[in-house]
Automatic annotation (TrEMBL):
GO biological process annotation, one example: glucose metabolic process
GO cellular component, one term: cytosol
Alphabetical list of InterPro entries matching this protein: G6P_DH, G6P_DH_AS, G6P_DH_C, G6P_DH_NAD-bd, NAD(P)-bd_dom_sf
EC number: 1.1.1.49
Protein name (Swiss-Prot/TrEMBL): Glucose-6-phosphate 1-dehydrogenase
Length: 374
């Protein structure tokens, strides 16, 4: 059966459904979500255009949704845009990044711009470094064919983590209109200076190449830590560390804002750790502020504790929508860089933690969180 015929049948199926709902022809809304590899976007879009469009214009519409990765580099992204752009008008095309649909990502602008106490702190005077981390405790399992073409940078960092970075680092938008938010994101991205080779650690977990869909000599990274430097008034000198890896020892996505040491520390408590504001996107949405308090008791000693907003506890009974429910770098050199090998189930290459240390992140030792009971 030809592709044209297949899409003809799809159209018939959709029309049948619309008819069963007593929809007047042309008044229905057709949304095509392309959960497909980007390489077939153009041919599938052509088939939709030729066979499956909403037939007349009585308030209905036809739209398509495409997911990242949108091409592999500037050239292929522009080519893809041009190919799809020939078939659909821009307002009909939705390019989505499902991380933007996550509850705590949606919360970022509110947190930053609706809370007075963050306003004076959110800058180079107070913040030592920012980490934006994505960790998965499983490998490419069954997706090696897709993944190997893209790697962790194009799969996670260039889109999901960069979107989060923009929301953390951008200036306040004029309003919440998408174009105003986009303008601020573009501005902060333009302020990112080219990444230095020595501020990148790439890794590949042992066993990745055993996947039959992965070439035996693949150099595709499954782990990357990258330091972004933002050359502007707010962020000069503050490293933004973007970290992503598969087959690691834990699964989480979080933003960790580490504050500078208190000057003139009369309590000599710096060894207990810096103040950190952590926004955990998943699992178990939470935000907590690690801070130093007096150890309860007779002694005047200090201990690290937290102000904790755990969503599961605070918003009991509230269903947090899945990211997909709500929505739907080229600064990195593409040269032949050999990733470092790391053990599956580990923290990734040790060099990544060393890079963090060089970038100024100070790991807290001895902090033990006592989870509250619900
Ligand atoms: N409301 C809640 O649910 C709360 C939960 N907690 C829990 O308490 C625990 C401790 O919290 P917290 O101190 O914030 O987080 P962690 O101790 O997990 O991590 C703190 C930082 O240290 C890094 N790190 C961890 N292990 C190493 C290592 N071996 N070498 C170098 N760097 C390392 C982490 O990197 P990386 O990001 O790569 O792992 C991260 O940047 C966590 O499990 C946290 O989830 C704490 C407070 C509130
Ligand atoms: O886009 C992708 O995201 C998933 C992780 O999504 P999450 O919502 O579960 O955090 C990742 O596994 C996949 O490789 C990537 O393509």
């Amino acid at each position: 059966m030809t592709l044209g015929r297949v899409f003809g049948l799809l159209d018939k199926e959709i029309s049948g459904y619309e008819f069963s709902k007593n929809t007047i022809e042309g008044s229905s809304r057709r949304l095509f979500y392309l959960a497909l590899p980007p390489s077939v976007y153009p041919s599938v879009c052509k088939m939709i255009k030729n066979n499956c469009m909403n037939k007349s214009d009585l308030g209905g519409w036809t739209r398509i949704v495409v997911e990242k990765p949108f091409g592999k580099d500037l050239g292929s992204a522009e080519q893809l845009s041009a190919q799809i752009g020939e078939l659909f008008d821009e307002p009909q095309i939705y390019r989505i990044d499902h991380y933007l649909g996550k509850e705590l990502v949606q919360n970022l602008l509110v947190l930053r711009f609706a809370n007075r106490f963050f306003l004076p702190l959110w800058n180079r005077d107070n913040i030592a470094n920012v980490q934006i981390v994505f960790r998965e405790d499983f490998g490419t399992e069954g997706r090696g064919g897709y993944f190997d073409e893209y790697g962790i940078i194009r799969d996670i960092i260039q889109n999901h983590l960069l979107q989060v970075f923009c929301l953390v680092a951008m200036e306040k938008p004029v309003s919440l209109k998408p174009e105003h938010i986009r303008d601020e994101k573009v501005k902060v991205l333009q302020s990112v200076v080219p990444i230095k080779d020595e501020e990148v650690v790439l890794g590949q977990y042992k066993g990745y190449r055993d996947d039959p869909t992965v070439p035996d000599n693949s150099n595709t990274p499954t782990f990357a830590t990258v330091v972004l430097r933002v050359h502007n008034e707010r962020w000069e000198g503050v490293p933004f560390i973007l970290k992503a890896g598969k087959a690691l020892n834990s699964r989480k996505a979080e933003i960790r804002i580490q504050f500078k040491d208190v000057p003139g520390d009369i309590f000599r408590c710096q060894k207990q750790g810096r103040n950190e504001f952590v926004i955990r996107l998943q699992p178990l949405e939470a935000m907590y502020m690690k801070l130093t308090v007096k150890q309860p008791g007779l002694e005047m000693s200090t201990v690290q504790s937290e102000l904790d907003l755990s969503y599961g506890q605070r918003y009991q009974g509230v269903t947090i929508p899945e990211a997909y429910e709500r929505l739907i770098l080229d600064t990195i050199d593409d040269g032949d860089v050999k990733p470092l090998t790391y053990q599956p189930g580990s923290r990734g290459p040790a060099e990544a933690d060393q890079l963090l240390e060089r970038a100024g992140y100070v790991q807290t030792h001895g902090y033990i969180w006592i989870p509250p009971t619900l």
